[in-house]
Specification:
By secondary structure, this protein is α+β, with helices and mostly antiparallel strands. It contains 10 helices and 6 strands.
Length: 316
């Protein structure tokens, strides 16, 4: 190929690309002007350590070795297995929406930083509660690492203070839910033990009354000449001892149920509390501008070559 041919091809290519590149630059400049006024978003993040399971089952060493290898035992689940579900639940989101927060907020990027005090529902400004709950998918994000079992959740809004307060409020609500659930489960066991203990004490009191009435008329029944009297006295004494043993056993079971109820309540191990974000998490203005430039340039280039593409497709 001669130098003149190469120069001609280069000039044609340069001429063909000049206008698409100009259109791309214009679109990128317009995009830059638009995204310049978009408010920044800020993300606050918290992490929760896994809760250690209480009580030995003989599988602790095997579970630890499996965790070190990144594996898990079949059926293995800790007290924190439902943390992600609770954080993603409608109960959690409705409580967050109903909470009143104090924060500073800018309506646009270069606007004044004004103090606001309102509920999250009012801040999101949705028409109804269902839409606000659905909108929370864009605010609250929850995940759990399969290997380390660390639960990570974050909140992203246009106010750094609001993002932090949402994360901290979610942590408090999660702790409140786990406390109430544990107390309810253990409380039911303790309440059943308490009711059964009250019944056993009444039965013991009745056995004492019957034996007392018998002894008033048969003080020395052990040496009585009547075998029936001796037998009845032994039966009543045995019945009373049985009731006393039952009361003692139920009292111990009640105390055990109360202790178990306390142990069943998982304690949140907060590794990272909600921080006050300084750096923005979005929007990615440079990527938006670059993407618009490439898209507009490619579109203009394709439009300019539409006749050649049409002829090429016809030949095919």
């Amino acid at each position: 190929m001669s130098p003149d041919s190469r120069s001609s091809i280069f000039e044609n290519l340069k001429t063909g690309l000049r206008r698409p590149v100009q259109i791309g630059l214009a679109a990128a400049l317009l995009t830059a002007l638009v995204v310049l006024f978009i408010p920044n978003s800020y993300r606050s993040e918290a992490r929760l350590l896994p809760v250690e399971a209480r009580g030995g089952s003989g599988m602790g060493q095997f579970a630890g070795a499996a965790a070190a290898l990144g594996l898990g035992l079949p059926g293995e689940s800790g007290p924190d297995a439902n943390f992600v579900d609770v954080l993603n639940s409608r109960w959690m989101r409705e409580n967050l929406l109903a909470t009143e927060f104090q924060f500073h907020f800018r309506s646009w990027r270069f606007g004044a930083d004004r103090a606001r005090q309102e509920t999250l529902y009012a801040f999101l400004d949705e028409k109804n509660l269902d839409r606000a709950v659905k909108r929370m998918d864009q605010v609250l994000a929850v995940s759990r690492d399969l290997k380390s079992k660390v639960v990570t959740f974050s909140a992203e809004t246009r106010s750094p203070e609001l993002s932090r307060e949402i994360v901290r409020r979610a942590t408090a609500l999660l702790d409140q839910f786990e406390q109430q659930k544990g107390r309810t489960r253990g409380g039911e066991k303790a309440a059943f033990a308490e009711a059964r203990l009250a019944e056993a004490r009444k039965e013991m009191a009745q056995a004492e009354g019957v034996l007392q009435g018998f002894l008033e008329n048969n003080r020395n029944y052990q040496v009585s000449a009547d075998p029936a009297v001796r037998l009845r006295g032994e039966r009543l004494s045995m019945e009373l001892r049985l009731r006393q043993q039952l009361v003692t056993t139920l009292a111990l079971n009640r105390e055990e149920a109360l202790l178990q109820a306390k142990d069943d309540v998982p304690i949140l191990n907060v590794l990272d509390a909600g921080n006050l974000p300084i750096e923005k998490s979005g929007p990615a203005r440079a990527m938006l501008v670059l993407g618009m430039f490439m898209l507009a340039t490619a579109g203009a280039l394709g439009w300019g070559m539409r006749d050649r593409l049409r002829a090429f497709l016809r030949d095919e």
